[in-house]
């Protein structure tokens, strides 16, 4: 599609420092790419979209999610629990409901919410795999993402051992064998993984936790297998103090030292959360290029702590943003996540600790960086046309002096006037073309009803 987006009030590029804002007011798209940004005049045959009173951001890149949890929001038994008891009360207890139908409904809900917040790339840490599961969860997720037109990274989770919190697992939580899991990941890489900075589909190897989901001696085998397949590594780490105490008591080291000993640091590795890190761990992250998926809303909701994302970024480390699963984040959208990322560090470290430009950078260019998607996350000529045109037509934006910061500083439900991924229009005037929202609500109510019965 040849397109000219005209007369935007402001353009945030996803870059940092002086490069964070582009002098517009126009953006030209050619096919799947951005052709030009500046003061542009329409060319013959070009469709013109009006962006008056709008701001343009890169499509957000969500680097940590569990889409299957989108039917597990606000479960009363876990609403006021810390991470460990919450895991038992919610994701573990409700795992038996994850069948083909609920996964389809849950993923549709989660992806729709992300799209309407302006997200164009989703990395889903999906760990609902078990021996003899009888349906193809990986294909199902890629298929739904395809229909929405978003970039999708399957971070293929799973466990090879039973956790203490789940000693009598239902069939849906039974562990896989190391060989079985690696063979399955290799098959998914063969079926879905694309190389290149503009991939629409990627696979990452992501055992659910390095501490409790797999045996320590298997970690180097996972790392070696991922590197042989040419894919990245991901997991949860140091989400709560339990990780720190476990590593200290069982392995006599910090969590970062533990994963380093098992070949799990480097530019092809990133971890979700990392709320609890000592200064030498933050330095190790930066020095090795190991990335962070910062999930402040989930961390606040579960009382887990505040990850030292600004400190890591100041050392040149790699920070991205993730919403985490909807079972621990009832607003799984990237505008709210960035709003929380902007606020929470300032509450603790002062008003100069994080800027709106910083959190946009983390949530766009930073996400592209940890996922190895070099052609998205930044608005510049030659980059993929993954971008969001936000209309500032809500009364909350009336009186705003700096329009560019509106969506992040204001938080809440943003209004996407036009949303593009890889040059394709995927959101228009706050709606997703082809999505039957009333039917989705009805399916969700029915699925929740089955869980309550
Ligand atoms: Zn998670």
From TrEMBL:
Residues in Amidohydrolase-related domain copies: 55-425
CDD domains according to UniProt: ATZ_TRZ_like
UniProt xrefs under Pfam families: Amidohydro_1
InterPro entries: Amidohydro-rel, Metal-dep_hydrolase_composite, Metal_Hydrolase, MTA/SAH_deaminase
Gene3D superfamilies on file: Metal-dependent hydrolases, Urease, subunit C, domain 1
Molecular function terms from GO: hydrolase activity, acting on carbon-nitrogen (but not peptide) bonds
Keywords: Hydrolase
Protein name (database record): Amidohydrolase
Organism whose genome encodes this protein: Rhodoplanes roseus
